[in-house]
């Protein structure tokens, strides 16, 4: 089979647990890209903290990043927003109130902006999280003052807190796509927004069929692109449900799982 596009999740997939691309994985991705295969990052991250990794690989001039779990697609070279899924921001108010009442940290995202309720009272673990992900939050203004579309609310808390929030919010018949994007995260987005939907739109704009796409990920927010792609691959560090949905399972993000799947399918030689 000839593959023309490879979609890569970042955290837990492309990046090891130190938030780095290993030398072996970097070399393999560059080798595939040199053959004309398009490399697309599909991540819950923002453009600001995903494009630098595209630049590290030398793929940014003509590359794309699908960010905010599919809520926006951005050209890595020009930073032009190619497509986005704006949501009805005022509908987030009940969820924001719940977060405040239950000591759950939340942030609001536009394509390039990140907003929190208060910077002065930012919890230590939330501050560390932003530092790790190279993000600088701003103070959340009233909805009426936003000049860019709101794309996502992210809730960040303990697993137990988020389990309870997810169970409660599900009973509200949410008008949003609500997903667990990591053990410590819940995201609320436009109902049609997902990695799979944005990946499909990007592939179709380039005349690439789903059968010509490989998608590699490790968590529930990757399911839509794993099931869309002709070859959907789960990392070995994925939950069992993600592995079950994938066509194949490769090694973990700390064992160059991307490299191994590329070798297995003959996209690179060793």
Q: Can you lay out the helices and strands and say which pair or pack?
A:
Layout: E1 5-8, H1 23-34, E2 38-42, H2 51-56, E3 64-67, E4 72-75, E5 81-84, H3 93-101, E6 105-109, E7 114-116, H4 124-132, E8 138-139, E9 152-156, H5 159-170, E10 177-182, E11 185-189, H6 195-205, E12 213-217, H7 223-228, E13 231-234, H8 240-245, E14 248-249, H9 257-264
Parallel strand pairs: 1-2, 1-12, 2-3, 7-8, 12-13, 13-14
Antiparallel strand pairs: 3-4, 4-5, 6-7, 6-9, 9-11, 10-11
Shape: globular
- Low-pLDDT segments, ≥5 res: none
Percent helix range: 25-40%
End-to-end CA span: 19 Å
| CATH uppermost class of the largest domain | Alpha Beta
Mean pLDDT: 93
* CATH architectural group of the largest domain: 3-Layer(aba) Sandwich
Q: How many separate structural domains?
A: 2
By CATH, the superfamily of the largest domain comes out as: HAD superfamily/HAD-like
Reading side by side through the largest sheet, how are the strands ordered?
5-4-3-2-1-12-13-14
What structural category arises from helix and sheet content? alpha/beta
What is the string of SSEs from the N terminus onward?
EHEHEEEHEEHEEHEEHEHEHEH
**How many β-strand runs?**
14
Gyration radius (Cα, Å) is 18 Å
Main β sheet profile: 8 strands, mixed
Oligomer: single chain
């Amino acid at each position: 089979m000839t593959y023309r596009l490879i979609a890569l999740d970042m955290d837990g997939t492309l990046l090891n647990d130190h938030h780095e691309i290993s030398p072996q994985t970097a070399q393999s991705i560059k080798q595939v890209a040199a053959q004309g295969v398009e490399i697309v990052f599909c991540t819950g991250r923002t453009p600001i903290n995903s494009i630098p990794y595209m630049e590290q690989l030398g793929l940014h001039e003509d590359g794309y990043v699908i960010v905010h779990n599919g809520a926006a697609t951005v050209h890595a070279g020009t930073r032009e927003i190619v497509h986005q899924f704006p949501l009805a921001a005022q509908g987030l108010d009940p969820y924001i109130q719940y977060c405040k009442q239950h000591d759950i940290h939340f942030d609001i995202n536009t394509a390039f902006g990140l907003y929190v309720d208060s910077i002065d009272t930012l919890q230590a673990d939330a501050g560390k999280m932003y530092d790790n992900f190279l993000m600088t939050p701003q103070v959340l203004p009233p909805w009426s003052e936003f000049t860019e579309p709101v794309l996502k609310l992210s809730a960040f808390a303990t697993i137990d807190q988020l389990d309870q929030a997810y169970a409660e919010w599900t009973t509200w018949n949410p008008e949003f796509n609500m997903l667990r994007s990591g053990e410590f995260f819940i995201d609320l987005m436009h109902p049609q927004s997902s990695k799979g939907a944005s990946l499909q739109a990007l592939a179709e704009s380039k005349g690439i069929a789903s059968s010509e796409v490989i998608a590699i990920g490790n968590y529930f927010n990757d399911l839509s692109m794993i099931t869309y792609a002709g070859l959907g691959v789960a990392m070995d560090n994925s939950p069992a449900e993600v592995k079950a949905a994938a066509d194949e399972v490769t090694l973990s993000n700390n064992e160059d799982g991307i490299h191994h799947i590329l070798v297995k399918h003959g996209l690179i030689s060793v």
